[in-house]
Amino acid sequence: MSPGARLRLTARAAAMLATLLLYLILHGLWRMVRLRSPWPPRFLGAIARVVGVRTTVIGTPVARDVLYLANHQSWIDILAIAGASGSAFVAKGELRDAPLVGWLCTLNRTLFVDRGDRLGVARQIDTLRQALLADHPVTVFPEGTTAHPGELLPFKAALLGAIDPPPPGLRVQPVYLDYGDAHEVAWIGDEPGTTNAARILARPGRIGLTIQFLPPFDPAGLGRKAVAGRARDAIADAMARGPVVTR
């Protein structure tokens, strides 16, 4: 690693720590007076900015009674979507035990699931269904893993049993994340998370990310596989249209 890259990594890591301390104080103050803390998703959005991400939001995120279905390329996806919408997430169960990260995910109402636990799918579906009754969005990455830039994997429908049938008034909103030509942010294959994070923190310049909140739809009567297919088709269409020009 070059001296410049090492300096960028160190500076961003220090800024992340300072941001963490600030938001922990704010979160603690809200909890002391028994108020619901708005700070965890705001903290994640702030960390995205520290990492160098400049997010452009297209469309209007539904604020509640909604399930976001998004494509997935990087751990940055979670930071950016949380900052833009206040969403909670469904994440791999092993993330719960990750130092600091697991605790921060818990603060942001993360739902931990073990995708390999087929016997526990019914329990996971019930957990997700209960979360959807709360007053905040929940995001699922139905590809089940991160994909290469420009690639959209098949959507897995198992967890969408939580909305078959859907809670009253629930909508599904497809979400398309586009990093443009910043392909190196993708977390692919067996690359260790620490290696990927260090590479991104040491990266020069900014990372442009466009989040498109596509038109929501009513999942009633569709079934989980049809919901997955309709959301994937909407994201695939957005990918095919290319970048959205904003002013």
Which key phrases capture this entry?
single chain, 247 residues, alpha/beta, 15% strand, globular
> Which spans have pLDDT < 50 for at least 5 consecutive residues?
none
**Elements, N to C (H/E):** HHEEHEHEHEEHEH
Largest sheet, in brief, is: 7 strands, mixed
Beta-strand segment tally: 7
Radius of gyration: 18 Å
Residue share in helices?
A: 25-40%
Number of domains: 1
Straight-line N-to-C gap: 37 Å
Spatial order of the strands in the main sheet? 1-7-6-2-5-3-4
Shape descriptor reads globular
Structure characterization notes:
This protein has 247 residues and is an alpha/beta fold. It has helices at 3-32, 39-51, 76-85, 101-107, 121-131, 193-201, 224-241; strands at residues 53-58, 66-70, 88-92, 111-113, 138-140, 171-178, 207-213. It has one domain (3-241). It contains seven helices and seven strands; from the N terminus they run ααββαβαβαββαβα. The chain has a seven-stranded mixed beta sheet, sandwiched between helices. Helix 1 (3-32) runs antiparallel to helix 2 and helix 2 (39-51) crosses helix 3 (76-85).
What's a quick, concise take on this entry?
This protein has 247 residues and is an alpha/beta fold. The protein has helices at residues 3-32, 39-51, 76-85, 101-107, 121-131, 193-201, 224-241, and strands spanning 53-58, 66-70, 88-92, 111-113, 138-140, 171-178, 207-213. α1 packs antiparallel against α2 and α1 (3-32) crosses α6 (193-201).
